[in-house]
């Protein structure tokens, strides 16, 4: 097996969470959603305030322009205040955000009254009723919309937190799963080696200990180098048990970066499936082929193994492990990940594509 790194896995906390439930108002997606919401609100307000004989589109354009200015003002202020808000407790940050939104609405409303010729005329005639009603209406609408928006951000944050917690639980459940047959076979192999080859037996014990340490760890993501090293330790134990029946071919692209981050324990279970379901049932054994390639944006991993003519009904769990990994990829990358399975009469292969993540 060539080009296999030997560095031991190191602990890494890959979980990164945003403080509080407020989104990043400097983010392009958040800006788009806020502007879209402002335009929809303009449609609602223009329909509700339309008078007979009034030009609807002129009214809509004036209301939309005013609301979009308020939306841009809120985005600008909240984007600039992002670090300050994230330094506060969630409840204080929420009230601060709420107050800033009302303040921005008030300032822009006053500027709109002052800079509009018609409203300036009203003000110069000492008629403050218009201005007071105009400001109060805008503040009331802003208070309602801001409260609804904050509630939406909070609910969405809670939903994402629940999804991440569930995903982390699934990942840890998969990481903690070591098939009993592999453990028993490994212990039997080590027991037999203690008398015939103590050095190999000691190495097998160390490899098995590393497997358990990584399986019981809480790493969400590791480098490709660490995952390959973990997989190699698993293969070392299987090679002691299967001997010449097991052959491994590892092909790494020359330009491949081993510091690329991937989900922990994403490669080893597929290699375990390939050995357990493909190589072990064959009398003469077979070859497990591991190919890892990358483009500028994607990392592709492929595991291929020979396929026995008749499937052993006692050897189950292949589909379950693949479904678990597919769910993990979906939770980690969403639609950016793809998993493909190719099956012929003689061969079986699993490949998946994931986005490139540098450490």
List the helices and strands and how they pair.
Blueprint: H1 28-48, H2 56-80, H3 82-86, H4 90-115, H5 117-124, H6 129-175, H7 180-196, H8 198-215, E1 221-223, H9 224-242, E2 246-252, E3 261-263, H10 268-279, E4 286-294, E5 298-306, H11 318-333, E6 338-343, E7 347-355
Parallel strand pairs: 2-4
Antiparallel strand pairs: 1-3, 4-5, 5-7, 6-7
Helix pairs in contact: 1-2, 2-4, 4-5, 4-6, 6-11, 7-8, 8-9, 9-10
Task: Describe this structure as you would to a colleague.
It is a single chain. The chain has eleven helices and seven strands. It is α+β, with helices and mostly antiparallel strands and 359 residues long. Helix 7 (180-196) packs antiparallel against helix 8 (198-215) and helix 9 packs parallel to helix 10 (268-279). 24% of the residues are buried.
